[in-house]
Amino acid sequence: DKVLTELIEPYELRAAKLREFLEDVKPSLQYDIVPLVDPYGPSVTDPDLQCLVVSEETRRGGEAVNKKRLENGLPELALYEILLMKDPDHRQNEEEKISSSSLRQRLLGTLLRPPRQDPALPSRPYVIGLTGGTGSGKTSIAKLLGQLGAFLIDADKLGHAVYVPGGPAYERVVAAFGAEILNEDGTINRKVLGAKVFGNQERLKSLTDIVWPEMARMVTEQIGEADAQGKAVCVLDAAVLLE
C-alpha cells in the first residue's frame, strides 16, 4: 500500500544511498545491507543478532519478529525504539515524518527523463499517451490538459464509432460473429458481442484483429486533425494504449 509505487527507486540505488549515509555517519562502522525478500529478512533466522531498532509505528513488527524467533528456537532481540524526525515542510497530503513517500509525491509534475528525440516522428503535434485502469483519473487529467490547450483524442469514443452501422469495422464484425449480435435497429449489441468473446482468447483476438487497426487508423487521422488546427500537444486517452 505504498504511495506511488511506480516511482520507488530501484534497490541498487536505495542501497547505494544507504551505504553513503552510513559511511558519512561513521566510516569505521561495520555493516551488511541485506535485500529483504519477505517481511522478516534475516531477523528471524540469524542467531548472532542481538538488537532490533524500531520506531513507534514499527514496534508491532519488532514484536512479530521476536515471536518468530522464539518459534525458531532463537532468543528474543532487544527492541530499541527511536523517535522519527518530523518534516517541518511537509504538505497537507504528505506524511508528517521525513519519508520517501513524500519525496515521490514531490516528483509528480517533473520530467523523469527528457522527451525522446526521434527523427522519424514529426515534431508537432507532440503526442502524449494517457493510460490507466478504470477510476485511475484519466478523464480528469485529460480535461485538465484540454483546458491547457491540448487536443484530446478519446479512444473509448473511437471504439464506439468503429462499431456503428457504416463504421469501418461494422461489416467484418457482423460477418465474424453472426447476426445474433445485432439489435432490431441493426446496431451491434456490445453486451451480446462481449459475452461471445469474454473468456475466449481466440474469439477475443479475432475481434481485436478487426477493431484495433481501424482504431489506430482513426487515431492517426485525429492526430492529423490536431496538426491542421495548429495544436502543439495531442493527448490520447486510451485504457489499452499499449495494446
TrEMBL record:
This is COASY synthase. NCBIfam families: dephospho-CoA kinase (TIGR00152). CDD domains: DPCK (cd02022). GO terms for molecular function: ATP binding; dephospho-CoA kinase activity. Keywords: ATP-binding, Nucleotide-binding. Pfam families: CoaE. The lineage of its organism: Eukaryota, Metazoa, Chordata, Craniata, Vertebrata. The keyword ATP-binding applies. InterPro entries: Depp_CoAkinase, P-loop_NTPase, Rossmann-like_a/b/a_fold. One of its GO terms (biological process) is coenzyme A biosynthetic process. Transmembrane segments: none annotated. The keyword Disulfide bond does not apply. It comes from the Eukaryota.
